Amino acid sequence: MELSAASQGTNPCPICLGPIVQESYLDTCFHKFCYNCIVQWTKVVASKQSLLPSSVKCPLCKRENYSLIRGFDGTSFERLYVNQNFGNGFFLTKAHKCRLQCYHTEPGIANAAFDVSRYWKSRKYLQSNQWLQSWLKREIQALAQDEDIEIIVHHILGVFDCFLRRNEQKHVKTPEIIREEFKALVSDAARPFIAARTNHFVDEMELFLASGLTIEAYDQVYAEYLGWNNSSASNIAAAVERSNENTPVAEGSNESTTIIPDLSIFYEYYIGSD
Hints:
By secondary structure, this protein is α+β, with helices and mostly antiparallel strands. The chain contains ten helices and seven strands.
């Protein structure tokens, strides 16, 4: 009787045959399941193998899938890879999600909100910024969708400190040359970790430094300046397809793949959603 009732429902979960709870998709075939059902299925499959698998076959079509998509709300989603522990995923906060919006705007579109040129000409870059480390931590966490990014932040801060020491002497280089040096050094430091979004990240870091504001004030000015509004989203297949272009999964690898945030709560790509 319960089976019949579930079957009459709209697209019941193929595993439990009940209404889908916490709708989740496999990334290749896009078959839909309850989150807990497909996670348990994946764990059962993994328990029968000596090594942690990097993919799992769909219970329905048997196609190989490398990640699980959940929390798709029409504009964004969270992606969990098979070779990671689903129970220990990193969940993006509202602040992370809001920051990811900027990576779907035209780079430099908010420059007019702050005088970036003056920042370099007046040598304000030599002034200590007490909020930079916290800003970097939040930014890298959002871009990599990983909580443990301290070593990356430490690396970028070290490169920036080195840049400052090299440019303490006055009138040796023009502001334009110093600015390009900053961008080149930070780009080289960040690229191995955030890949396709590196140039935009460097622009955002420059903008935050030039603002001279606290993180909270900067976020408010940035959002108000751009006047963000909700926009219609692409369907989930299109969103994941775009993400796959920037985050290829190496077959057979047990290493977690860096997730490049072509994503935001306003635009298409993947982020966590509670």
